[in-house]
Amino acid sequence: MSVSRRGVMKGGAAGAVSIALAGSLDTIFQTSAEAAGEAYGYGPLVPDPKGVLDLPRGFSYKVISAQGDALPGGGQVPGKHDGMATFPGSRPGNVRLVRNHEQTNKGIKPVAPEALVYDPAAYGGTTTVELGRHNEVVAQTVSIAGTSTNCAGGRTPWGTWLTCEETEGFAGQTKSHGWVFEVDPVGRRTRPVPLTGLGRFSHEAVAVDPHTHTAYLTEDASGPFGLFYRFRPRAHRGDYHCYLQGGLLEAMQVRGLEDLSLVDEPGARFRCRWVKVPDPSAATESTRRQFDTITRSQKLEGAWWARGKAYFVASFARTASGAARDHAGQVWKYDPRTDTIELELIFKAGGRFDGPDNITVSPYGGGVILAEDGDGEQYLVGATRRGEPFAFARNAFNDSEMAGVTFSPDGRTLYANRQEPGVTFAITGPWARLRD
Asked: I need a surface site. Which of 99, 150, 212, 346 has the fewest CB within 10 A?
């Protein structure tokens, strides 16, 4: 099944978002270094005299939380900042950030009450930062600890954060790892209990359908490559306890397509079938190894829900690592109404940017901003509603990846992380000045 990706883009803000996905990101990843970021977006980047973060004229950043900062309750802010989401704060105008820390069994160990610790041997977890109207830190605490390699995750429709462990275990662990945990931004209902129904594997990200509460999950793994899953909860009511009650975990299969890297035509569409995972707990064998024939992909990464569809990203595929074909990134979308996946775009090698990872929808111009985790310099890259690419920010400090891009609920601030050494930025400026 194949349709023109341009032919399905229609009207309104939702249509603008799709145009950004289908028409801009492929341009971004094929744009020359000389052309990008000059004629569109917010203009060229201005070198930061502090050598931390280059931004366009008129924009500024504030370091709101950094690895090693002292925490009021004891301990320090852990490192390896990664996935993140925003939630309303305790007062009007305040914002809460829930932030992942992709540490395994080394680094700054999160210090938390025993009631919030899953495995004392693990160094991952999340921190919750509450910010005031001027992005000043009002409160900062470890919100779950004893988890491992917390990479990405996803926001639920009922206002919690799903933090995902990108591991299947490590030496010295006292409990099994490779789970998803739910974090309450307020902190009252967080329990260090794995959501076992969502499976035990090398989780990356999750996107949740707000109507059915079905969760779509990506797996970043090799030997063999990872899968794209869906979890259908047993409970029909979506709330904090929804996923604790279990459900059905299934893996996506496209008949005749065993590797998503074989698809290189944007607009190519395929009908899916879903195969039950025999043992979601992976007690004796990894979930991805429980199938003779299934559809796989190298480097399945970010996922998010928009326009009634689940979008998911493959950062790259390399034949040298066992992939069927090479590419510098794909964005796919799954439509639950038609039970089909469609290739929105494919990223070509040789451009200024590569390695799409975390992506957020911008409230300005209907475009997107993505965090790059590629080779060389690392950027936050934006796109206008007309599909024109621009470099919005550059990590001027080192070549560590950018991550966790997310806007405040009012759209006035963009929050983003530099992973190492871990820093969270609050970026403000003349957002309405966007040139498209």
From this structure: 212
C-alpha radius of gyration, the chain, whole number: 20
- Residue showing tokens 């936050």: 380
Residues of the chain below pLDDT 50: 1-37
> Are the C-beta atoms of residues 264 and 246 closer than 8 Å to each other?
no
Query: Do 153 and 126 contact (CB within 8 A), yes or no?
Result: no
The model's pTM: 0.91
Please report how many Cα atoms fall inside a 13 Å half-sphere around the Cα of residue 121, on the Cβ side.
9
CATH code at position 211: 2.120.10
Taken as a whole, the chain contains a residue count of 436
Residue 431: inside a domain: no
DSSP for 374-390, please give it. Answer: SSSS-EEEEE-TTS-EE
Q: Which residues of 413-429 are buried (b: 16+ CB within 10 A; e: fewer)?
A: bbbbbbbbebbbbbbbb
Q: How far apart are CA 159 and CA 239, in angstroms?
A: 8
Instruction: Please provide residue 215's backbone torsions phi and psi, each rounded to the nearest 5 degrees.
Output: -105, 135
What does residue 289 show for φ and ψ, rounded to 5 degrees? -95, 5
Tens of pLDDT, residues 190-246: 999 999 999 999 999 999 999 999 999 999 999 999 999 999 999 877 888 899 999
Residue 192: cis peptide before it, omega within 30 degrees of 0: no
What is the domain range of residue 136? 6-34+81-366
Please give the Cα distance from 123 to 346 (Å, whole number).
Answer: 36
CA torsion, ordered 380, 384, 389, 394, to nearest 10 deg: -20
| Residue 203 resides in a domain | yes
- Residue 74 corresponds to which amino acid? G
Cα dist from 308 to 26, 82, 337, whole Å = 22, 26, 9
